[in-house]
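Translate sequence into structure tokens.
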Amino acid sequence: MVKVRHFRKNIAKLKEPFPKIVTKDKIGFDKLKQIFSDEIDDSKER
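Result follows.
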């Protein structure tokens, strides 16, 4: 259960600066992508 506790703590940390991305203790990755859309590089290059 240690991993679950750490996971919840990390979600709580994300919720502070980005409250719109966390719903019911789950991360809304679509909302996260909207917030950072200018910073995301969708190219397939590695």
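Note: The first strand starts at residue 22 and ends at 23.
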